[in-house]
């Protein structure tokens, strides 16, 4: 399943791919894709890793589940394929971005442009069955993505983690905060944003300020 993952990640995650849970997960995902319509496409399951190699990581954003509607998910959290209407959370991300950095509301919801600059857009679960939210949870993906976060925390320094909402905060609990920068806020979903827990977090400008201070290239959001 991971044969198409970027070589840098193959090295970092080599021992993970040999563990029994990962073999079970591979078997489960293969069966699901053979028997049902699942998202994202098979060749996009590891898109987050292929657009952002281990060496390139500057920022990590943690999502939960891929979108489960037709043609939405493309392997990057919160991102949708070109030409697809923006889901509510993505709309709120772009509204905050517009307000924070005074830039035009983006015309494309495809966040490959962020990933290519070193933003790892990591969902906790990398696959889902069509129209069945959470259908691939608790099958091994969470163990795998926990390992990814742990490897980044252990092997890198000064990565900026953006934890949006309770789920992401829990997922990022083991990040070494002495070595990395962790910014937390509410989830961009309407439920949270409408309660005043999302807007005004300024995570995009804060991230670029930290990158600038570290002498790294800022993200063109």
TrEMBL record:
Transmembrane segments: none annotated. Keywords: Cytoplasm, DNA damage, DNA repair, Glycosidase, Hydrolase. The keyword Cytoplasm applies. It holds the Pfam family UDG. It is found in: Cytoplasm. CDD domains: UDG-F1-like. The keyword DNA-binding does not apply. Signal peptide: none annotated. Gene3D superfamilies: Uracil-DNA glycosylase-like domain. It is an enzyme of class 3 (hydrolase). Its EC number is 3.2.2.27. One of its GO terms (molecular function) is uracil DNA N-glycosylase activity. Residues 50-211 form the Uracil-DNA glycosylase-like domain. The active site is at residue 65. InterPro entries: UDG_fam1, Ura-DNA_Glyclase_AS, Uracil-DNA_glycosylase-like, Uracil-DNA_glycosylase-like_sf. Excises uracil residues from the DNA which can arise as a result of misincorporation of dUMP residues by DNA polymerase or due to deamination of cytosine. NCBIfam families: PRK05254.1-1, PRK05254.1-2, PRK05254.1-4, PRK05254.1-5, ung. Belongs to the uracil-DNA glycosylase (UDG) superfamily. UNG family. PANTHER family: URACIL-DNA GLYCOSYLASE. This is Uracil-DNA glycosylase. It comes from Flavobacterium azooxidireducens.
